[in-house]
Amino acid sequence: MKSLNKYSLPTILERLKNPPVEIFLDKKEDIIRINENDQETLWNCLLTNVETVINTALYPDRGSQNGKQSEKNNSEKHVKEVCDKQDEDFAQEFLFTLIQLAHTVIDVPEPTVPDSMTSLVTVMVELLSCQNVFLEVKSHIVKLCSLWLKKKLQLEESMLVDTFKYVVKQSLLDGALKADVLSVWTFRAAVKIVIESKDYFKVMKDDLLDVPVSKNFLKCKEGCNFVGFMMTINVQFTLEIHDVIKKYLPVYKAEEYAPIYYYAWNSSNFEMKTVIEKECIQFFMLKSLTLPRQNLNMIIAGQNALRILSQFHQQKHFPHVQKMLSTLYEPLLWRYLTSPNNTHRCNATEVLFDAYPLERPGKGRQINDVYLNQQHDAITKLLTDNCHIVRIIAIRQVCKVLSSYWEAIPAETIHRWMKTICILANDFSSFFVRRSVFKGLPVLLTNPHATLCLEQILPRFQKNFHDPNEQVRSAFVNMLLAVKAAKGRLKFWHIVPLEELVGRLEVENEVVGIKLVDLLFESFFNSQFDEATVILRLVHLVALNSSASLKFFYFSKKRLPLQQAVKMMLDIITFVRGYVKAKLDAAKVGGKKDQQAQQSPVSKKRKLFSEQDNSTSFNESIDGEDTVTETVMTDGSSIATTSTFSLLENTEEPPKEMPLDNPEISKGFLEIAGVLWHIHLKDIEKPENKEIRNNIFDVFEPCLNSFLQFFKSHTGLYSAVLGLCSFMPPSRLKYVSTVESSCVSQLKKMQWDNNSDKMLMFLVPLCMWGRGADVIELAREWLKETFKKANVANGRRSSSCRRKVVNFKEATGPKPRLGLRLIDSILMIPRCKNKVFGQHSEELVQLWLYMGTVKELIDNRLGRGECFQDPDLCDTFLEECFDLYLTLMISLDNVIHEDQPLNSVHEFKVIVEWASETLLPHIPLDLGDVSNEHCDEESPPMLPFVVNILNIVIKYATCLMPLGRVDLQLVRSLAILIKCSLSKGSRMFFVHSGCVFTSYLIDYIKGYDKGDQLHLFRRVVLTLMKMVLDALSEHHMEQTSMKKYVQDFSKVKCTMNEVLMFSQRHSAKLAQNVASMFVVSVVNIIRTAMRVEAFEEPVGKINCLPFLAAQIVSLFVLRVPMAKLFCSGLEKHFATYTKKDATYFIAALNLYYVLCHSSTKIPPESLHNILSSCRDCYKAELIRQKSEEGSSEIIETLLSNDGKKLIGGIQEKLLGSQASLSSAAVQSLLEELNKCL
């Protein structure tokens, strides 16, 4: 649209020359002045000109027809000539100017409107339907009509409806403004005219029904009010709007409809209110009470229904609203609160608390007290409901009710509720219940009366702070944070002592740990503390728990920014440096006194710390000193805050005991500095923080050497100092060469089974100082010496390899397993891995290439048929070496070697091919004897050597799949290798690795189109899954015996579920085939168990089935669609497989018996179909026996004593307890089975 130039009326009138402009124009001021006598003349002339302009410029066809009939006068002819000569925008300019003039005329306190002006406005409204009129002109026409209504001027019905029709259409457009919706609200009086007129309503009905779901209306108050206004006019139209909104509720969160329904109900007459109550409000009540739930929450439709009801609940302080709610809830709410359906009770609980308290206005206080007690009794029962979700909702809502109505609820009721909540805090049937207790109690802190009660109750929950569930602990800490934020008499350390909070931090994870740091931070540190106070509080923290103090600072990055962290690091180092200096000075003074007294040479340097822990509390160490003062901690305890640094001043006789005399505190200080450096390392290394970095180096550099010397006799302290040294560049360490050599020497002296922390103490600094190549070469030399033994024993020479010589001599022989641990540790620690890969990737490649020799050793070992005699070449070493070889193969992917990137996919193809040729022929033909001695959680069972090697190949080749480093050829080769492994007699050894591969394969094939997905799924995934099931069902194994072969059965079960879900997503036929495969497996497992254990009675519960069968059945019976698939598979099984063997029939019948008694998710018709198939199978067997005149194994088995017991038991249970099948139907289906009894 072109913008209007907004010509002045005099200019336009001069062009038209009608009426004479001199009448209205004051040439001195160039404005129009119109007196009342001249208004009629002006508007008559303008009306004539407007009609001519419209007919000529906007409706040229209509204008030409009128022109042919007659020319009224010369003036009209002149106007037409002017319009023809002007540009196409002249008419728009003319109309816009007249609208502005009309707006000016009526925008006065008491406007006078001539009839000709009213006619002109009517003509303007007609232009709203003209497409040739600019939108800006139409917008001002709407504003003129709006002002017309505001001034209560006469407006014809057609004008009102036409304007309303236009503004409604504009407001429904995408991108409509709030002003468009406000215009609709302004012309709302037209709604009644439109609805009551058939012609108008037929035209506008669709637009009006689009309004309730238009975001333009729902996002502003006036728009919502308009929707509500439409619902107050006509009953039928109100119901149609309600139907439109009902379709919208299940899809979107619709908070906007709540005020709409309330406005409609509150603004309606009695008749319309009755309709809205019965048809709308009760509909939402019923839906909020009956719709299904998603775990702890209502589905979206239920939430929307409750939101709409909540709008009425919030207005229940009005008597007419309260009366309506009580009346409508009476037949529904109390029925569903006692419903046997858990979902209904959950929904009713939410509705009751949202509406609480319900009253009966006008019934008197006595009746209302009884009604309120009825609600209180219902709430008490809900708190102890057998459904944990009901209890969860009740706990949360009771706390909200108490926070709002504490003074109004009887004390006995409050006591009963709080006592129940205290009991539920220890409800170990569901951690959600315990969590809800600690999520609800903080709400009470907003009520002063409730806070007094909490002061007595919350300290009783101290033990719940150590709840085994993380979410419960997190909720508990959130409660403590709420107590802290309340700043009342109740303090968080009154609930859990400070020592216990700090102690918990030692074993807590990051999620809860960060919250604990937020809780405790101000108890130890504050920006207003000076350095001495910070140090002493740090002493107190470390003394409480040194390990927890490290966690405290590890989780403190958000609370302790870089500048404060660096300051604390420097304060710690300065404090430790002062302590070391004081001790060294004291040692020198003491040495001189001893020399003078004894006149003997200086004795050896005394040992600063004994190996034993002589730790004492900091309060004890400074007790009795004159300079000590007390500072009260946030928790009320007091610690010494004397001038800490004064303890380290140069005095002739320094204090006999200082805080750092305790080795644990000294170690804690140094480790805290290292932790702070570690968590802020990336920020410190940024170029813009160069000054900060250099400041740290300048403070640390002169200290570390003296620290190394002073703390050398204490392993923990020495390790902490080395950790700090690892952050320093070698150029800033004066004696780094000595330290480096010492670290290498210490690594050489270690044994492979030494403590990891001790090994890392020397390994990490070496890697960070750029000495990773030396560590790699050390490991390589050890491996070479070990491999050489095997080569010599087999008459081979080791291949020569160029290497860097390490400047030390072997004293105790090679330590190959230690070398493997060193390389593995480098790969496991991110700092070390990044440093070594950045500087020494070529050395790692050379090590990996050399470690390829392990394949030859494995060949030799398998050829020998027994272990190597040398203990360094034991099977465990070969397995660890091969494991590290494949780990390096993955880690070195894309590393440049000889100008080419290494390709792990290609290398693994070679490995898989080698495994197929070398390892598969040596797989045991049976399971053999796997001892139970090693079958526990800490040590896995001893499996055959070739099995372990093959599983290592499968494990690492599979690891490439989630990394996206495989191609179809490698996947196919690996699948063939696993199939071959699962086809051997010892296939149980490969069940776990096969399931892991199958799980990743399902994710892998999702990258292909649907056709290829189904092809790969059927050809590979289902084949592998069937082989796994066959392997599992081949032997009768319970959970303990299965652990010998499958350490983590949860992964096997997870893979089974993924196979089911994939098949269900693609097609019903595929899902049915997969379910049938699982049914066959379950029947086989039961059949195998029956051979081992004679079942005198049918198994009635899922958990009484053999372990594997129970696990598979549990995948199906918890969901209705899957339960139907499983029943269909069992029905098919009776029709086919049971004819093979009588034991198949008995096993399938036993499985059917379990399904009847163990799941409510199975539809009755599915159970009916299975029993029909069972009957048909038996009848067919009878017919076959008669025709062949021979015996039937199935019938003979059923006629045996065991068979009679089983069939009799099944018959009795089916007739006696299967409520979903009628007794007559069951009796009819069992008649054929009774014949054999």
UniProtKB/TrEMBL annotation:
Name the UniProt record assigns to this protein: Condensin-2 complex subunit G2
Record's compositionally biased regions (Polar residues): 611-620
GO cellular component term of the entry, any: nucleus
Domain of life: Eukaryota
Stored SUPFAM superfamilies: ARM repeat
Region (Disordered), start-end ranges: 592-622
A GO BP annotation: mitotic sister chromatid segregation
PANTHER family for this protein: CONDENSIN-2 COMPLEX SUBUNIT G2
Annotated InterPro entries: ARM-like, ARM-type_fold, Condensin2_G2
Species: Gryllus longicercus
